[in-house]
Amino acid sequence: MSLIRNDYWTFRVFDYPRLQKFVLSVICLMLVSYFYSKHNILFWVLIGAISINLLYLAYLIFPFTIFGKKQVIKAKNSIPDQSISIMISNVYQYNNNTNGCLQEVNKANPDIVFLLETNKKWEEGTKELKEKYPYHILVPKENTYGMLFYSKLELKDYKVDYIVEDDVPSIHSKVILKSGKEIIIHGVHPTPPAPGENIKSTERDKELLIVADIAKEEKLPVIVIGDLNDVAWSHTTKLFLKMSGLLDPRRGRGFFNSFHARYPFLRFPLDHAFISPDFKLNAIKRLSNFGSDHFPIYISVQYEAKADSEQEEMHADSDDIQEAEEKKSKE
Q: Where are the annotated segments for Disordered (predicted)?
């Protein structure tokens, strides 16, 4: 189902459970091998089909294991004035544990806190962050697409945009590092392909690819953060990386599954931080849950002028460009 390039949620939902399908396929292979007594043609067809499926799934998830090639290099020497740390957290709008959120923020102590699914209740419940984070962009909404952006670092030329849907905001801002270096951060939370949201992935894919174009055109270093409602290994995310020229620090380090916090077997990497090749990685980790259906993700990166000559982004070919243009033109 996931191989079919159809935007309907019934197809796109199968992009998510790659690891789960791999585990289930291993179990199926063991069961068929143990219980199927007749080693006839049907037995070998089943064994062959499951084995092919396992190899394909392994190919998809391997880059996100510790055995895969790291797309982002680890910084060797810490340069605090050139570094920025970010906490990304979909708080789940109907979660009332604002104190738990504040405790997690204080524990992680990031330079930037990006809270998603935040309404007026969450704006009021986290207002004490303004003391420690004097720069902020607050866009509370009651439709589960509100955003609260708190920063210790100076923000400049920021704006709130509605790229595809009139009630789904995104935040775009220059951030000035302690060294004085300016970078760009784009905070996004597109709608997922799901019943009750959008029955197609059209809006999500379109927003991601428009942001990819914006990031590609930027002259300054870029970071894209948020709950993208898409998994790290999906075709759309891979296309986003190709079109934007950004890197995924998760590759070669682990899955960092952020959703669903309450169901260990149904967890996927939905919350992301993609960075331009000007950055190297200081740290990336999953933080503790405080009652949301998402785990927060923490990332710290360091700007280095020569880093882009040491790291290689993915490149789009003519088919990728054509597909991206088609997705952006859909209504």
A: 309-331
Q: What is the CATH number of domain 80-327?
A: 3.60.10.10
Task: State the angle between helix axes of 235-244 and 202-217 in degrees (0 to 180), rounded to the nearest 10.
Answer: 20
Section 155-177 average pLDDT: 97
Number of C-alpha atoms within 13 angstroms, CB side, residue 128? 8
- 125: amino acid identity, one letter: G
Confidence of residue 149 (pLDDT cuts 50, 70, 90): very high
Distance CA 216, CA 284 (A): 24
In 3-state terms the chain splits into helix, strand, coil percentages (rounded to 5) of 35, 25, 40
> Which of 150, 155, 128 lies closest to 139 in space, CA to CA?
150
> Token pair for residue 292?
């949301």
- The radius of gyration of the chain from alpha carbons, rounded to an integer in Å, stands at 21
Tokens in use for 290?
Answer: 């405080």
Whether residue 260 is preceded by a cis peptide bond, meaning omega within 30 degrees of 0, is yes
Q: What is the three-class DSSP state of 133? A: coil
Length of the chain counted residue by residue: 331
**CA gap 328, 206 in Å, rounded:** 5
Which DSSP helix (H) or strand (E) runs through 299?
strand 297-303
When mean pLDDT is compared across 30-39, 84-93, 161-170, 288-297, the lowest value belongs to: 30-39
Q: What DSSP string describes 233-294?
A: TSHHHHHHHHHH--B-TTTTT-----B-TT-TTS-B--EEEEE-TTEEEEEEEE---SSSSB
